[in-house]
Amino acid sequence: MGARQQAKAQQDADNRNAFIARTRAIQTDIGARQGLESELGSMRAALGANGQPMNAGTFELFQDFRKTRDRERSIDFGNRMMEAADFRTKARNSGQMAKMALPVGLAKAGQPLFDLYELLR
């Protein structure tokens, strides 16, 4: 019973960690999107302050910058979501261990009882 309770506690902890990891992934994604818009706004302001009009060259530069930042953001978001998936997998495994704890415990206890029975004979 102790092993079952320990496995259930581990499952609960892993479920909490999965939720936290997913929340961090969402926060990271939102922060990266806000950062990108801030950087693009700063670039537009710098170009405007220098009197440079938006033309095809600057538009291309902005598009390349946006693609690079989007790729970085999506890789970071994917890594965070994989971390959440790992915790969910650990929680499922802990749940299976909790289900099997009682039969395994009985099997382990059965052998010493059998040895005692043999000694008494």
Annotate the secondary structure layout:
Layout: H1 2-49, H2 56-120
Account of the 3D structure:
The chain is mostly helical and 121 residues long. The longest helix is centred in the last third of the chain and has 65 residues. It is 93% helix and 0% strand. The protein is rod-shaped and about 100 Å long.
Coarse morphology: rod-shaped
Count of strand segments:
0
Helix percentage: over 70%
Whole-Å distance between the termini?
Answer: 30 Å
Backbone CA Rg: 28 Å
Short overview:
The protein is 93% helix and 0% strand. The protein is mainly α.
Supply database-style keywords.
mainly alpha, 93% helix, 121 residues, single chain
